[in-house]
Amino acid sequence: MVDTDGVTGAAKEFGGKVQGAVGDLTGSKRDSVEGRAREAQGSAENLYGQAKDTVRDAAEHVADAARDIGGRVRDAVGSLVGSDDVEDRARRAQGAAEDGYERGERYVRSAGGNAYDRAEDAYETGARSLRQGGREAAGRIAEHPMAALLVAGLLGYGLGLLIHGRD
Fold first, then answer.
1. Residues 36-91: pLDDT tens digits?
2. Is the full-model pTM beyond 0.70?
3. CA-to-CA distance for 9 and 35, rounded, in angstroms?
């Protein structure tokens, strides 16, 4: 499609050439100058119209190429997504991922429960041992109060030396 500026510019350019040539032949400086001015104006309009045509053609070419590429991508994706095999594989992969997550969650809950049970057992065993040790120590101290006092004094002195040194 040719731009109207190009057609109008070409007509003005031709008319300016004719008017300038007539002015040159007749010796009319006014016609010669006006003709040259119209020729220059027409030439500029013609170039402007040609530039618009070139830009429009390039834009149409780019748009056509983009539509073509978009159509190819759409067709390629459509053939993949539309494929029953691909959809079936995607569903199976999703199901496998969900199963793996559920199994992992069960394992973590089970391991956490086992760890809690073992910690509770260890706490109860430690508490029983501490109570039993406390009862035995209290019984021995009651039987030998002076020996217990001497042992406690020696332990205190030893701790004092360890903490403060021999200064």
1. 888 888 888 888 877 777 777 777 777 767 767 766 666 666 665 555 666 676 67
2. no
3. 14
pLDDT band at 110 (very low <50, low <70, confident <90, very high): confident
Name 43's Cβ contacts closer than 8 Å, sequence gap at least 6: 9, 13
Report CA 28 to chain centroid distance, whole Å: 74
Q: Which two tokens stand for residue 95?
A: 């199901």
CA-to-CA separations, 90 to 34, 63, 77, 80, 83, in angstroms, rounded: 77, 34, 14, 11, 11
User: How far is Cα 91 from Cα 74, in angstroms, rounded to an integer?
Assistant: 22
Whole-number Å distance between alpha carbons of 99 and 106: 11
Helix and strand counts by DSSP (H, E) for the chain: 4, 0
Angle at CA of residue 16, ends 11 and 19, nearest 5°: 125
Structure tokens at 78: 């459509």
Residue that has been written with the tokens 């429009």 in this structure:
56
